[in-house]
Amino acid sequence: MRKDDDPARQRDRETLPPMQALTLLTPLEFFDDFRSQAARAESRIWLQVMQVRQGERVEGLFDAVYDRTLAMGQEGVALDTRFRFDGFTLSRTKHIDGMFDKFEGIATIDYINRLGPLEQFFPNTGRSHVKLFIVDNVAYIGGMNLADANFYQIDCMLKITDPRIVDELARVYDDLGKDRPHYDEETRCTPDTSILVDGGNVGQSIILQRGVEMVRGARESVDFLSQYYPDGPMLGALHETRRRGILTRAVVAQERSDSYGQVSTVLHELSNFVSDGNEGKLPLDRISRGVHGKFLRADERVLIGSHNLTILGVLAGTEEIALYSSDPELVAQSREFIDRTIRGEM
Q1: Which domains does the chain carry?
Q2: Which of 2, 173, 221, 319 could form a disulfide with 185 if both were Cys (CB 3.0 to 4.6 A apart)?
Q3: Are strands 132-135 and 301-305 parallel, antiparallel or unpaired?
Q4: DSSP letter string over 258-309?
Q5: Do 210 and 290 meet the contact criterion of CB atoms below 8 Å apart?
Q6: pTM for the whole structure
Q7: What mean pLDDT is reported for the chain?
């Protein structure tokens, strides 16, 4: 785990006054907000996602970035525009053919973790699953890839305007683009908020570990949201909270037909059997509309980011990012998000 090696920087973060700077957005709210921020960017537009596909909304988002980058260049200001995609996107090139040609010479476009010959058959292994967007001094993290269908799923992006957290996310963005050691890390940005990064070590995840600790330490209630069924240590922890009489809600997508989803379902059922001998199964709120969000709330703490909070991604060695916080406003927003999802209002 990485330790913050600058004590003075850490003291500055902790002594600055608290500010309301964490806002949970739906996919369409994120789309509108990001385009608005990009249209008036002054210094940088950075983004990283696992995959991108052509579509009306996605192209509209990149059009806003292109228009601003071009306009600033015409004014003599070189906007720092960077796109970073996992090699998973290149395995589906038909979805991006020609999409970024117009950015040649005005933006940096990188493809990381390119798939080798064997990985073509197992494209979900060794991926960077990070979703991170930065426009000037505003950042967003969460569950969204960039495909039109993603804007109509149950998902969320966290808008961050606290400069202490944005600065840390900018550092993480730079690190993720380098040939860096694959280590997990946690950096405390404010007295109540940290950024966690999984380095992609097979079988190791500081984010999943933190989530399991949160559930096991809960005293009142737990909300779990993921596109996949909980499994492994997370499912065991959720079973434990139910046995202790704690309100435990798990919101997931209906059973998925893709191979990755089928493996997840098998792991869930196996973990269920190991935990409770197939008795007292954890009730799941299965949502017919697509679910792609990933967050966990346990009492007054929230964990939100790119991690599906299942063991499957950990075994696949994926890079992930998450924000861990006890910010009261974010906790309240998280409760409301789950309530509205269960009521079918999202």
Answers
A1: 16-342 (3.30.870.10)
A2: 2
A3: unpaired
A4: SHHHHHHHHHHHHHHHHHHTT-SPPP-EEESS-B---EEEETTEEEEES--S
A5: no
A6: 0.88
A7: 86
